[in-house]
């Protein structure tokens, strides 16, 4: 089920005795889920899904206020206050992320719709979002997500399911009934394979449409890159606080600067394009999308504040990252490991539930979102993201 109390952000909110760690876990998982759903609403131009995002945003507001109340009660000494101060930055950052999701949802519901060509191109990002209807004769029909273990086996995550109503972030006990619509997230190749298993037909990526915007591909490339880098920034930010790694925090800062530059480039392109299109107002949605995406990288930078300032953060911060739905682990490739000398593609094929988001080379070089043929050398450190089972198996193999 959803990690959020849907709609509970409206009305009176009272203190509840719930641990700060549990609240942080729910906010981290919720912020990742709500952004995925917001982009899904945008890609499919779904007003129903956009409304769900706004309901979840209200639930996030409730969690954030609860977290602040608990923080005030938890800080009893000056040491407590110093160690818990970075938590306030994380709370603020998750609030920013949920606000961004709300802005994207409003983009669907308002008259400032994205140009269709831009919307259709967004699936070219590092991970794609697709909807698939469970066919009567699907091998998945009638089975639970736990029985299928889809994410570990394929790397594709079901982030939402629509039957009579939406079920967001479905759990292992959720049954895939014929006719249910699944929201899938993962790399395009695996999404294509899962889509065919679910729907009984080949996955067809959205096609391009006619448009009157010159040099549109440049804008598309820029917005896709902004989306990828912003999502990478969040992963690295949570990794930095999990491992108390100032180098990762420094990389988050560098990526935040890069996204700022990409936003400026896109704004300049939009101003030029506005003079050449019949309806310049149609480009407003693109600017809103760029601004919202840039705010995600800002939020990632805020998450790293405690690490950047060398504050001895409270253990509850790292514990909350460890207990979230998605694992982030650091994997070192030893010289005698069976992975030494293999490629990123080998890891992807052997562990579909694992995504390598970064490689820290032995010579101190960082490689983000590495290519399939990038080789893994001795003492390379992988930052991986995925299910706990799959990342655990990779961690075990890397050392032997």
Uncertain ranges: none
Give the CA-CA distance, first to last residue: 37 Å
Q: Helical amount among residues, as a percent range?
A: 40-55%
CATH superfamily of the largest domain: Phosphate transport system protein phou homolog 2, domain 2
Name of the level-1 CATH class of the largest domain: Mainly Alpha
| Broad shape | globular
* H-E string: HHHHEHHEEEHHHHHHEHEEEH
Question: What is the mean pLDDT?
Answer: 82
- What is the CATH topology descriptor of the largest domain? Methane Monooxygenase Hydroxylase, Chain G, domain 1
Instruction: Please give the radius of gyration in angstroms.
Output: 21 Å
Helical stretch count? 14
What's the CATH architecture name of the largest domain? Up-down Bundle
Structural class: alpha+beta
Strand order of the largest sheet: 1-4-2-3
What percent strand?
Answer: 5-15%
Tell me the major beta sheet: 4 strands, antiparallel
The tally of structural domains comes to 3
Number of strands: 8
């Amino acid at each position: 089920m959803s990690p959020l109390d849907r709609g509970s952000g409206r009305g009176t909110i009272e203190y509840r005795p719930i641990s700060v760690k549990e609240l942080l876990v729910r906010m981290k998982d919720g912020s990742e889920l709500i952004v995925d759903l917001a982009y899904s609403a945008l890609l499919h131009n779904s007003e129903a899904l956009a409304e769900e995002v706004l309901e979840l945003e209200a639930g996030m507001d409730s969690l954030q206020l609860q977290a602040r109340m608990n923080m005030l009660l938890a800080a009893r000494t000056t040491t407590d206050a110093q160690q818990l101060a970075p938590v306030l930055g994380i709370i603020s950052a998750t609030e920013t992320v949920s606000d961004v999701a709300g802005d994207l949802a409003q983009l669907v519901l308002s008259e400032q719709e994205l140009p269709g060509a831009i919307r259709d191109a967004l699936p070219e990002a590092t991970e794609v979002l697709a909807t698939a209807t469970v066919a009567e004769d699907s091998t998945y029909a009638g089975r639970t997500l736990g029985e299928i273990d889809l994410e570990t086996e394929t790397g594709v995550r079901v982030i939402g399911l629509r039957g009579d109503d939406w079920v967001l972030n479905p759990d292992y006990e959720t049954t895939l009934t014929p006719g249910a619509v699944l929201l899938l997230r993962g790399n395009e190749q695996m999404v294509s394979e899962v889509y065919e298993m679910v729907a009984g037909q080949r996955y067809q990526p959205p096609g391009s449409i006619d448009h009157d915007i010159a040099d549109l591909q440049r804008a598309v490339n820029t917005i896709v890159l902004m989306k990828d880098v912003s999502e990478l920034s969040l992963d690295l930010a949570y990794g930095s606080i999990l491992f108390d790694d100032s180098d990762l925090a420094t990389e988050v800062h560098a990526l935040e600067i890069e996204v700022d530059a990409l936003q400026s480039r896109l704004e300049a392109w939009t101003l030029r394009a506005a003079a050449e299109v019949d309806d310049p107002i149609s480009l407003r949605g693109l600017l809103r999308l760029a601004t919202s995406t840039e705010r995600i990288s800002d939020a990632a930078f805020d998450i790293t504040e405690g690490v950047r300032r060398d504050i001895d953060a409270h253990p509850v911060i790292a514990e909350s990252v460890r207990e979230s739905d998605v694992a982030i682990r650091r994997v070192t490739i030893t010289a005698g490991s069976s992975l030494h000398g293999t490629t990123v593609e080998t890891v992807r094929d052997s562990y579909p539930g694992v995504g390598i988001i970064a490689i820290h080379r032995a010579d101190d070089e960082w490689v983000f979102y590495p290519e399939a043929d990038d080789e893994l050398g001795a003492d390379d450190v992988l930052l991986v993201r995925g299910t706990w089972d799959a990342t655990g198996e990779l961690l075990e193999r890397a050392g032997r």
